[in-house]
Amino acid sequence: MPERTEPFDVDALLVQILTTPTLGAQILMNTARELDEQPFLVITDEDLADALTKGTETTLGPQVPALVAEEAMLRSAAVLPEIRPGETAGEFAIRLRSAAGAI
């Protein structure tokens, strides 16, 4: 096996790993972007489900293996906050971004 001529940049790889959000966090952030399109809408479970579906499709797409996609969706669902009565989509999006930081 030939010897590498350039040293492997472990520091750069480590920075990339530590700064790139997980797929679960990306799902929540993309869902928040979807909700921000109608920030004054009083959010319902159906609105959240629609936004979550779009956010998941945007994040994962067809190239992600099913097992990886399932794990990402489970992680994002685990930190998904409850909708408060009368809460708007914009308010919920803020809490969703905060929850994304937990994963």
Entry summary:
The chain has 103 residues and is mainly alpha-helical.
Report on the architecture of this protein.
- The protein is mainly α.
- It has one domain.
- Helices cover 62% and strands 0% of the residues.
- The protein is built from five helices and no strands.
- It has helices spanning 10-19, 23-35, 45-60, 66-78, 89-100.
- The longest helix has 16 residues, at 45-60.
Secondary-structure map:
Blueprint: H1 10-19, H2 23-35, H3 45-60, H4 66-78, H5 89-100
Helix pairs in contact: 2-3, 2-4, 2-5
Q: Which consecutive residue ranges, at least 5 long each, have pLDDT under 50?
A: none
- Assembly type of the chains comes to single chain
Number of strands: 0
Radius of gyration: 17 Å
What is the rounded distance between the termini?
39 Å
Q: Could you give a short account of the major beta sheet? A: none
Portion of residues in beta strands equals: under 5%
Order of helices and strands: HHHHH
Apparent shape: elongated
Mean pLDDT across all residues, rounded? 90
Number of domains: 1
Helix content: 55-70%
